[in-house]
Amino acid sequence: MNIVLKKIEKDDLELLRKWRMQENVTKYMLTDPIISIEDEINWYNKIMNDDTREDYVIMADNIRIGYYGITNIDRNLKSCYIGFYIGDDNYRGKGLFKEIQAMAEDIIINELKLMSINIEVLENNPIIKTYYKIGFENSNLINRHIVKNGESLVVINLNKQTNKQTNKQTNKQTNKQTNKHNLY
Questions:
Q1: What are phi and psi of 155, to 5 degrees?
Q2: What is the per-residue pLDDT across 80-120, written as a single tens digit (0 to 9) for each?
């Protein structure tokens, strides 16, 4: 299977909007948005002029299957946040995450020249185990709680240093970043 991360284009918006509101996607997301076409177009116009983020459609054999976002890019701290989802049910659970993440990390490290990758993950998300397997660690940020569907869930903060030579000041500043990395 040929996996590619393709920059988002206007033609992708309706599919991304539908995926982002699917229950099987939102159950692992921090929010459960209801997104109008107008909201999606406004979001797209905003991100096109935002140099603190990179947004991609995940492609598998030329089929759009999901979304990958690199957000809250801080070139001084050399850090970012990430988020992704597979929207096409036919590709969920197929073991594609490691390949997708490797491609994204190539962009993060070699193109964006960043060294610290952060993500917030709900405690009920089974992907956490895979993040640990590929080098993410608990970031020492205080975990917070959100309520979804009447259930209190812990939001776990994970971090991966792409360069073990990263200085401690950068790590401390990166860990102070908070909820500015919403994908919508």
A1: -100, 115
A2: 999 999 999 999 988 899 999 999 999 999 999 999 999 99
Position 166, amino acid: T
The domain of 40 spans: 3-175
Residue 180 lies in a domain: no
- How many domains does the chain divide into? 1
Q: Is residue 81 part of a domain?
A: yes
Separation of alpha carbons 30 and 183, rounded Å: 10
- Give the predicted TM-score (pTM) of the model: 0.84
Query: What CA–CA distances, in Å, run from 24 to 6, 20, 92?
Result: 23, 9, 10
181 within some domain: no
C-alpha 78/C-alpha 96 separation (Å) is 27
For residue 182, tell me if it sits in a domain.
no
C-alpha distance from residue 44 to each of 13, 49, 67, 87 (Å): 8, 9, 13, 18
